[in-house]
C-alpha cells in the first residue's frame, strides 16, 4: 500500500504524485529529470507515471511494454535510461487518476482532445504545468495552451519553457529553463524542485503568458533564422 503522507514530528504533509501526459522526445527527457528527483526528495512519491500514446513497434511489441521492460523509450529517446521508477501507462484516465501534479508535454494539436478526455477525471487538488510550445489559433483569436488546460480542466496551470533541445538535456549537457506561475509561489517552487538538476537549471517568474509566449515564439524566430541561413541571405536579413 502506497503512503500518501509523510510525517515529520507532529506535522503531516502531502506526498505528491506525478504523472506526465505525453512521452515523445521531450516528455521522455522530462520523465528522466523528474524521476531522478522524486527518488531524492521526500515530498514526492518515487513512482512517476507516464501516459504513452500506444504504438506498435516494427518488432510487433507495444511501446509501453518495451519502456517498462527496458526502461527506455526506444522510439523517441533511444539509448537513454529514464529511471526504473518511470511507469509507462497506455490508459490516459488511469494514468492521471491518482496524480496531484500533472505535466503536459504532448504536441499541441492533441491537447484539445486530451483535455476533453480528462475533464472531471482528476483529483480535486491537482496542479498542472505545460511544457508545450505552440498555441491554438481559433476564429475568436489565439489561445495559449496553458489557458486551454486551465479552462477545459478548471485547474491552475504553470508553464516551463527554455531554449531546450531534448537530446542535449538527455545527455546531461547544461541547459536552463523558466517556470512561469500565476499566483502561488509555493507551487512554482515545487515545480522548480521537481525539474531542477545540476545540468538543468530552473528558476521561476510570476508571468505565465510572458514565459509561454517567449518559449513559443522562439521556435518561429529559429525557423526563420534557419531559412535565412539556408538561402544564404546573410546576417543583415536575419536580424
Ligand atoms: N523535442 C524537444 O527538444 C522539445 C523541447 C522543448 C519543448 N518541446 C515541446 O514539447 C512538445 C512535445 O514535443 P516532442 O518533441 O516531445 O514530440 P515528439 O514529436 O517527439 O512526440 C510526439 C508524441 O505524440 C504522440 N502522439 C502521436 N499521435 C498522437 C495522438 N493522436 N494523440 C496523442 N499523442 C499522439 C507520440 O506517441 C509521441 O509521444 C511540443 O510542444 C514541443 O514544442 C520539445
Automatic annotation (TrEMBL):
It comes from the Eukaryota. GO terms for molecular function: glycerol-3-phosphate dehydrogenase (NAD+) activity; NAD binding; protein homodimerization activity. Pfam families: NAD_Gly3P_dh_C, NAD_Gly3P_dh_N. GO terms for cellular component: cytosol. Its EC number is 1.1.1.8. This is Glycerol-3-phosphate dehydrogenase [NAD(+)]. One of its GO terms (biological process) is carbohydrate metabolic process. It comes from Aquilegia coerulea.
Amino acid at each position: 500500500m502506497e503512503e500518501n503522507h509523510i510525517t515529520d514530528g507532529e506535522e503531516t504533509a502531502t506526498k505528491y504524485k506525478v504523472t506526465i501526459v505525453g512521452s515523445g522526445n521531450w516528455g521522455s527527457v522530462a520523465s528522466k529529470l523528474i524521476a531522478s528527483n522524486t527518488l531524492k526528495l521526500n515530498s514526492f512519491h518515487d513512482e512517476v507515471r507516464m501516459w504513452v500514446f500506444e504504438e506498435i513497434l516494427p518488432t510487433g511489441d507495444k511501446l509501453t511494454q518495451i519502456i517498462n521492460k527496458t526502461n527506455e523509450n526506444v522510439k523517441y529517446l533511444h539509448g537513454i535510461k529514464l529511471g526504473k521508477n518511470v511507469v509507462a501507462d497506455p490508459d490516459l484516465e488511469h494514468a492521471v487518476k491518482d496524480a496531484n501534479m500533472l505535466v503536459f508535454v504532448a504536441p499541441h494539436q492533441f491537447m484539445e482532445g486530451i483535455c476533453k478526455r480528462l475533464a472531471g477525471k482528476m483529483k480535486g487538488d491537482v496542479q498542472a504545468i505545460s511544457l508545450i510550445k505552440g498555441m491554438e489559433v481559433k476564429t475568436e483569436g489565439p489561445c495559449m495552451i496553458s489557458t486551454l488546460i486551465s479552462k477545459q480542466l478548471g485547474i491552475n496551470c504553470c508553464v516551463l519553457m527554455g531554449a531546450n533541445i531534448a537530446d542535449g538535456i538527455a545527455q546531461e549537457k547544461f541547459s536552463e529553463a523558466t517556470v512561469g506561475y500565476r499566483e502561488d509561489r509555493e507551487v512554482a517552487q515545487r515545480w522548480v524542485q521537481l525539474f531542477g538538476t545540476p545540468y538543468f537549471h530552473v528558476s521561476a517568474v510570476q508571468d505565465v503568458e510572458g514565459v509561454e509566449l517567449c518559449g513559443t515564439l522562439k521556435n518561429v524566430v529559429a525557423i526563420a533564422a534557419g531559412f535565412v541561413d539556408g538561402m544564404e541571405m546573410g546576417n543583415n536579413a536575419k536580424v
